[in-house]
Amino acid sequence: MTNFSIFVHPFQNAMYKFQRFLKILGPSILYAGAAIGVSHLVQSTRAGALFNFDLVWVLILANLLKYPFFEYGARYAVTTGKNLVQGYESIGRWAVMLYALLTVLSMFIIQATVTVVTVGLIAYVFNLTIPLINLSVVVLVVAMLILVIGKFSLLDKVMKLIMVLLALSTIVAVFAALGIHQEVSPDELINFTWTRQADIFFLIAFVGWMPAPIDISVWSSLWNLAKIEELGYKPDLKSTLIEFRFGYIGTAVLALGFLVMGALVMHGTGEQLSPNGTTFSGQLINMYTTSLGSWAYWIVSIAALTTMVSTTITVLDAYPRVLMSTYSILFKPDGQHLKHEGLPYLIGMVVMVIGASVIIAYAARSMVFMVTLATTISFLMAPIFAWLNYRVITSRQMPLEAQPGLFLKILSWMGIFFLVVFSLIYLYWTFL
To answer: Does the global pTM surpass 0.90?
Structure first.
């Protein structure tokens, strides 16, 4: 009996830890839902289709050097019980004002961009001829109703199912694509070069949302606080970081998967990825069905569609939360923070829907233009957000034992240097 318990107790202990992990799992899945969208379906696929495997090292480097700044959102929230906007307040009121300015400048175009890609998929999959702006408004209003009625709990549960579906379909498609032998034209086998302006601009846009804009770290801190409220207790820092890394690593692996798919199925074939959202969506789905077979059409369509729908919903949920926290700090001197629900939350979403709809109405003719603009803006803002996050996580309000170790600090400075250098390269090519 004693010998048998030697095997039973470790198993029971492992099961207990796994059950605890599943219970706190959520914020990293929402992070993945926000990240796995345009950067993966559009940019990673284009990187592989255009340059084969030339940009794999950039993808890996971007995920590695941006990692600390995303992790700091979860680390700060679970340690202090505050979100990162409140952390910026500890640096100075100017930091919150700067964050608010950068957020307002980018939030409508980011919401519009992910919505346009989502609507393109919907139009292709269901063969709809509804005008783009009309369909966009419908999608945004439906997403808003889901968030108002279901709130964080529903969002948390739905996203877990969506991410499992996407991960499985992408992994299967990548392995199936390994056996494909496409007919290629030598004239179409181009490589990335640092002397071609178009390649540099694509690289900046690619890195801009790889794996996601750094300001998503603020969203992550808010989602962690929402999860703590739902659980009724605060998980320990170690469990929180494990949960975050699970989503982060999964997001990076899937980004690599999309790049590999673009390289194996489209590179050198002469097929150009269309700037039109609906046409691009068809090319994307056909890329999967080429490797898996026509039987996989609906599986792939649902996976791609749910991915972009989830991104649209998570972005629409995040910005009102951010706006409420920012408003509370800047305009409520008594320190009273608005709750992330009720009328203020609804007003924030209505503002997002209207702003995104206006941009879609005037700028959505070219999906590639919108994606490039949004990702470039995010990239140029990245060094600022990275520096702010580092300042907050190493401030006095963070207990010494909860601050990042030497390795993460070194990686943070390398990441800031990387982002600044790439920004200067972009500015050089743009103006000089």
So the answer is: no
